[in-house]
Amino acid sequence: MAAPVARGECSEAALAAALADVPELARLLELDPYLKPFALDFQRRYKKFNETLNNIGENEGGIDKFSRGYESFGVHRCADGGLYCKEWAPGAEGVFLTGDFNDWNPFSYPYKKLDYGKWELYIPPKQNKSQLVPHGSKLKVVIRSKSGEILYRISPWAKYVTREGENVNYDWTHWDPEHPYKFKHSRPKKPRGVRIYESHVGISSYEGKIASYKHFTYNVLPRIKDLGYNCIQMMAIMEHAYYASFGYQITSFFAASSRYGTPEELKELVDTAHSMGITVLLDVVHSHASKNSEDGLNMFDGTDSCYFHSGPRGNHDLWDSRLFIYSSWEVLRFLLSNIRWWLEEYGFDGFRFDGVTSMLYHHHGMGQAFSGDYHEYFGLQVDEDALIYLMLANHLVHTLYPNSITIAEDVSGMPALCSPISQGGVGFDYRLAMAIPDKWIQLLKEFKDEDWNMGNIVYTLTNRRYLEKCIAYAESHDQALVGDKTLAFWLMDAEMYTNMSVLTPFTPVIDRGIQLHKMIRLITHALGGEGYLNFMGNEFGHPEWLDFPRKGNNESYHYARRQFHLTDDDLLRYKFLNNFDRDMNKLEERCGWLSAPQAFVSEKHEGNKIIAFERAGLVFIFNFHPSKSYTDYRVGTTLPGKFRIVLDTDAAEYGGHQRLDHSTEFFSQPFKHNERPCSLLV
């Protein structure tokens, strides 16, 4: 991080008070003394977090009970066969339940008004004890607004919503199966080094259609396991009416997307992943919500507030979506219960929190360069209500399941985001290293190979806060989307359509593309963080971009698919990239560089285009020179003894030129080189 311009030091008395209030703040300030002028900010945040937690304890019986909102809100079958219903609609004049069960009579079942904007309804059981609202039947909450308008709404707590035929809006489908899925496998242990396969169920088939949970379970999970990934990050699971939003315009927060199948089939997917030792993370979107009112949260009670800020503050101008009011008691209940729901009901092992930058700041990151000056991370521009919510969410996740993983998608680089709450941090386990993919795209777009700056590459890959873990990635779904290009497409472009057959000679473009694709991934994996992420299909250089069906492409599914079969064709070069990705992951599993201390970079030679570093007892050597190879090249190391090649991007099975003899043994000598006590010739 850039050295910040310090604000005036806080007084010794104020600092002592902050250190007394925040149990391990001294550790944070020891790790980063530049944060000392901001000790009062950490004190205020921590005290506000504790105050909120204590208020929840006093008024709700603790966060454990508070986060079980889904057990009472929504619609629930009682033991006696009756139905209990509860909603929070502070702006409503009347609330009713209607549906198939009462022939859609809008007013025959009125809710009773409670304090604090809550409404409840109990419907006694039928005399014959049959289900009052059968599984699979349709329901609606009817709201009478203060202006007298009658609104048909889906409960914010709905567990399943479906869209039939050509209908534009989703319907609330009561989900209460007679035989719910029973989990067979325990959660896997927390990975030592997390290797994430970023996944989207709907595009996981080569066919031009929306793929299913079943398809993913039986066809994609085995591939992920074979590739050596120990974690999957599931995108677009929370229900979203607009498929092309990539799952980022949520309409029903407690509903697993029905376009892929049923809730029970998603549970089977998670359970099957667990049986393979794979951790499953949910891409959770609590940064904003869809503007839909017919089948979303917006205007639920007839007002523009309820779950969101009223007026301009409640709108995200860039995303055209609604923004939560994180200071609201019932919004906290809703969001924290949502976190718990996905952990408990579906067995997820943690979350990647989307849009954290937008949550952290009142400016939502729009128009901000984030230079690294620490003043950017403190003061009035910070939305401390949202920050406290994130602290509460992390506290809840790690209290319920200590081995859970939380990842923040934050582009700002906020200090202590991934520090423990006890230090005054926000409590995430990892942050995404979002500068890394931007650097690779910049190099490929703007620079000739001979102009690549080795020092700048190393700086980008190692520029992270000490003891705040990062997930490194060369590219994610962002780079695959239409309007951008994957690394493979930047490297090989149109030649991917004509020159990927092993029956044709290497062209210079394909040769360069295949070699750099492997090198970029390996150096990112080994040097860039404490975790690694890859978006599905990119590991083998998936051709073309990603584009969901929409009016602009005549609702085509042609680009909304993943052509995994390309790696199974022995006559195509995609298999080489797939093989390399698999062996790279399996070597990390064996050697554990992601969980090892940060690498020591002994060389970043601009003329030779060589980068060399050590991590986890391995020596990594990269030659980025477009035309030169080297013999007897001296590389520094701390390790005396014998070395052998364990991974070689130039090997034949990876589409390389086999220029290295893998039977060669290399011996280090006590010959100091590049600040290392030993060195070897390679």
UniProtKB/TrEMBL annotation:
Its EC number is 2.4.1.18. It catalyses: Transfers a segment of a (1->4)-alpha-D-glucan chain to a primary hydroxy group in a similar glucan chain. It is an enzyme of class 2 (transferase). Keywords: Glycosyltransferase, Transferase. Signal peptide: none annotated. Residues 216-565 form the Glycosyl hydrolase family 13 catalytic domain. InterPro entries: A-amylase/branching_C (IPR006048), Branching_enzy (IPR037439), GH (IPR017853), GH13_cat_dom (IPR006047), Glyco_hydro_13_N (IPR004193), Glyco_hydro_b (IPR013780), Ig-like_fold (IPR013783), Ig_E-set (IPR014756). Belongs to the glycosyl hydrolase 13 family. GlgB subfamily. This is 1,4-alpha-glucan branching enzyme. It comes from Felis catus. The gene is GBE1.
